[in-house]
Amino acid sequence: MERAYTWFDLAKDYWFFLEGQRKRFIFFSLLKSATDFVPFGIAYCLGRIVDFFTKYNQGESLTEFYVLVSLIALAGSLQVYLRFYAKLRMYKIAGISRKNMRVLAMQKLMDAEMQWHEKEETGSKIEKINKGAESIYTGTQQFANEGITVLTSLFGALILFIVLEPKYVLFALCYVFIYIFGEWFFNRGITKQELVLHKMKEKVSGKIHESVSNILTIKSLGLKEAFKTRTMGYETQYYDIWLKSKKMAQLKAKTIKIWSALGYAAFILFLGYDTIAGVITVGSILVYASYFGKLRDGLHEITDNITDFITTKTGIRRFMTIVGLKSVEDGHLPSVSSSWKEIHFENVSFQYREEPALRNITIKIQKNEKIGIVGKTGCGKSTLIKLLLGLYQPKKGSIKIGDEVLSQYNHKSLTQKISVVLQDTELFNLSLAENIMLGKNDRKKLEKVIKIAQLEEVVKKLPEGTNTLVGEKGYKLSGGERQRLGIARALYKDAPVLILDEATSHLDSRTESLLQKELEKLDKTLIVIAHRLSTLKNVDRIIVMDKGKISEEGTFEELRTKNGLFAELYRLQQKK
Question: What is the CB neighbour count within 10 angstroms for residue 180?
Fold first, then answer.
């Protein structure tokens, strides 16, 4: 069961968001609070003016009246200036916090374990970040505009009643207690409904993102109507939950504001009796009615904005699920040494869920050795690579680079030592050069890796050469061109270990052969998961996997002439 997220939790999390800006936030909050006390002083001055004119006789001095009017003008003008100044500064603080939290969320996503990413839809993650970051900003707006006003109205009115006429405090406290109880009673249901609404919105965003990401498949298979119907179904569910939430908020507002109107009328009646009895002056009716009005308006601000507050609270609650993600990054751990001699998989077993993916794998890969890994689909080849990259931890056994177990190195240093090219190369909507260099700018190195990756002819065809935008996910390039770009990117990184996970499956035989020859010249440890077995003729060793186990191991010629799985797979490819 999900733990309740309280207003105290919200305050604690918001304090975390304000790191580096807390002193300024407190100062401008106090300044804004001071401006919200000004209307109490203006109301007092108006009461004094009423009393002045009830006693005023023609020809008497108007000095007191002019002084009171001047005070009202001065206080009102100063209030406007300082209030807008304080709010602007608080908005600036909110904007900085929003920016910092978006960056933090991205960092958390990058460092999160792969198991979490596999369970969460991309659209849901985006919705959590966007809604959460905006909630941080709108939360500050709400606090600056309504939150501080509510607090000063409530406490200001109660304090002034205590100082000026203590007997009215009891009436005001009863009024506030019943009002707050009503808010609490209704808001329990609204809070639960908002959480359901946010989760549904994340789900809808996930489905929309999924549809947009697979637009080519949808159009190719004529699935437009099916996905339109599916989207309508999710949107209808979201609308129904939203409507229920709005109806609950409307019912609450009507009920509580009727009580508020009756309470205010009763207080005016109370003041009338005290005026007749001579307990207070005529001007005091205006003063106390204004104070009670401020108290009532403060409570009305809660009613009018509490749903927005709850929405903000829920947005931050969902955002914190990302902030609280367990990180695979351990900066305090040592870096991978450059003097390592071998990579050692020792009795490694792994399973994703129930079905084992790897069973007691033992492999030793020497530094600068060139090895191939082959096997049928689903035999565990890619899983082996994911474990080496530290994306998952073995369920049993260990993986060592040099003398240390992989988990004893910090993950950042591990990724610096390994370059990997996957079958489906992921590209960004940047230029071809930027996709290869990713933030660095060594043009000589760029030209070198373009040549090795057989990209020269591709660059010549592009309208702006290496400065041509490749489009989102590289849609302007063919599958083979994207794979070559991925290889160029890995080579540009210049890590001592290069892994190709079926990274040449979309290339024609000639290009693949040329590329393979270039890669074999490199002074690197090369691990190749191959689609075409013939490309592995010159590697030092080939590991053949079957159902999560190593079934054979040897050179290309040894395995080809042996009556095993490799020979069977090779014969099948030769027939094609």
Answer: 14
On whether both 305 and 372 belong to a single domain, the answer is no
Which one of 296, 323, 350 terminates a domain?
A: 323
Name residue, tokens 């205006």.
286
| CA 466 to chain CA centroid, nearest Å | 33
Amino acid in the structure at residue 30: L
pLDDT for residue 441: 80
502: left (phi over 0), alpha (psi -120 to 50) or beta: left
Nearest C-alpha neighbor of 322 from the set 148, 108, 573: 108
Fill in the amino acid letter for 110. M
Ranges of the chain whose pLDDT falls below 70 = 1-2, 216, 220-221, 328-331, 576
Q: Helix 167-213 vs helix 282-323: angle between axes, to the nearest 10 degrees?
A: 30
Provide the pLDDT for residue 93.
92
Give pLDDT, residue 348: 92
Measure the CA dihedral 321/324/329/333, to 10°.
Answer: -160
Token digits of residue 134: 């905006």
Pair 524, 554: CB distance under 8 Å: no
Cβ atoms of 413 and 331 within 8 Å: the answer is no
The whole-angstrom separation of Cα 254 and Cα 249 is: 9
Selection from 343, 340, 402, 331 nearest residue 371 by Cα: 343
User: What residues contact 260, with CB distance under 8 A and at least 6 apart?
Assistant: 179, 296, 299, 300
End-to-end CA distance of the chain: 56
Kindly state the tokens that stand for 87.
């709010």
Amino acid in the structure at residue 483: Q
- Whether residue 197 is contained in a domain is answered as yes
Query: CA 406, CA 420: separation in Å to the nearest integer?
Result: 17
Let me know whether 66 and 149 are in one domain: yes
Please report, as a single letter, which amino acid is at residue 399: I
DSSP-derived pairing of the beta strands 418-421 and 404-405: unpaired
How many angstroms separate the CA atoms of 486 and 535, rounded?
18
Residue 259 and residue 238: Cα distance in Å, rounded?
A: 32
Q: What is the per-residue pLDDT for 116?
A: 77
Q: What's the Cα-to-Cα distance from 324 to each of 332, 407, 424, rounded to whole Å?
A: 19, 21, 30
Does residue 393 sit within a domain?
yes
pTM, full prediction: 0.70
Select from 323, 354, 387 the last residue of a domain: 323
At residue 393, the 3 state secondary structure works out as coil
| Phi-psi category of residue 68: left, alpha or beta, with phi > 0 → left and psi -120 to 50 → alpha | alpha
Domain that holds residue 464: 342-575
Record the tokens describing residue 176, joined without a space: 């506030």
Instruction: Report the alpha-carbon distance of residue 348 to residue 409 in Å, rounded.
Output: 18
Show the CA angle centred on residue 166, arms to residues 161 and 169, nearest 5°. Answer: 65
**Pairing, β 541-546 against β 370-375:** parallel
Helix axes 282-323, 63-111, angle to 10 degrees: 10
Give the alpha-carbon dihedral of 115, 116, 121, 122, to 10 degrees. Answer: -100
